[in-house]
Amino acid sequence: MSKLPLCSSAEVIRVLSRNGFIRARAKGGSHQAYKKQESARQRTVIVIEGRKEIGRKTLERIIDRAGKSEDEFLTVLRS
User: Fold this and answer.
1) Does residue 46 fall inside a structural domain?
2) Fewest beta carbons less than 10 Å away: which of 15, 16, 18, 74?
3) Which domain covers residue 70, as residue numbers?
4) Residue 43 — pLDDT band, cuts 50, 70, 90?
């Protein structure tokens, strides 16, 4: 079972921002892209803005695309 809490899109965006992601562009409608340049690779994460809760499976995918572990995500979320 996942130890991830239910998070709002604002909380997820805050964690991404603290990890060096910047808003890249509007994907369309309520979806926003956030990117981070890492040495030879660029990571792009899509987040639905304005959600009170993002499902745990969706959150797992966002964390994976960001190249972070659940523990790293939770540490930044709680700080």
Assistant:
1) yes
2) 18
3) 9-78
4) confident
How many of the other CB atoms lie within 10 Å of CB of 45? 23
SS3 labels along the chain: CCCCCCECHHHHHHHHHHCCCEEEEEEECCEEEEEEEECCEEEEEEEECCCCCECHHHHHHHHHHCCCCHHHHHHHHHC
Q: Is residue 35 in some structural domain?
A: yes
CA gap 77, 31 in Å, rounded: 21
Report if residue 2 sits inside a domain.
no
Give the mean pLDDT of 34-55. 83
Domain count, the chain: 1
